[in-house]
């Protein structure tokens, strides 16, 4: 089973088709090659360094809440959304 994490896109480098996402204060550079039309502030599902697709902020929040219940993210990150 694979798990994709929701994260907020905080920066885009259009020249390299890369972006920076943030989750629990951790920033990670990811490829945006598989998604079209993303913009800073969008939430994306990230798996092995790639944004797979965009999701709504409400869906990201629901997912983070479930992950918090499972002990995968902290409540602090959930409150920051």
From TrEMBL:
State the signal peptide span.
Answer: none
Pfam families per UniProt: HupF_HypC
**InterPro entries according to UniProt:** Hydrogenase_HupF/HypC
GO biological process: any one? protein maturation
Any single GO molecular-function term of the entry would be: iron ion binding
Family listed:
Belongs to the HupF/HypC family.
Protein role: Involved in the maturation of [NiFe] hydrogenases. Involved in the biosynthesis of the Fe(CN)(2)CO cofactor.
Q: What is this protein called?
A: Hydrogenase maturation factor HypC
